[in-house]
Amino acid sequence: GAQIGTVTALTSSSAAMAIDLAVNNNFSHTTSEDTTLSAPSNPVAGQSGVITITQGATARSLAYNTFWKFPGGTVPTLTATVSAVDTFVYNVESATRATCQLLKDVK
Hints:
Elements lengths: L7 E2 L6 E2 L9 E4 L4 E3 L10 E7 L7 E3 L3 E2 L15 E10 L2 E7 L4
Parallel strand pairs: 1-3, 2-4, 3-5, 4-6, 7-9
Antiparallel strand pairs: 5-8, 8-9
């Protein structure tokens, strides 16, 4: 059946953004600094979800821990426009990797 839950806001501190996949599947983040999406805690194979990323008052960059794998091995960049919205989609394959894609400049 359908799984419907709340969206958990993520914050970054000291240029790192922690994510606990035991808390939720879907997250949001508004950028406030250049940061790195850390490897998640509590990943479970088969879990999937999204992180909606909104650029704050200043466009920022996002790097990714090696846990996050992208098509062709090409790491994407966020849309570099104030208030731009990108959607990061992930599927956890194992405790050590997730397949991901960044849907850019969603309007």
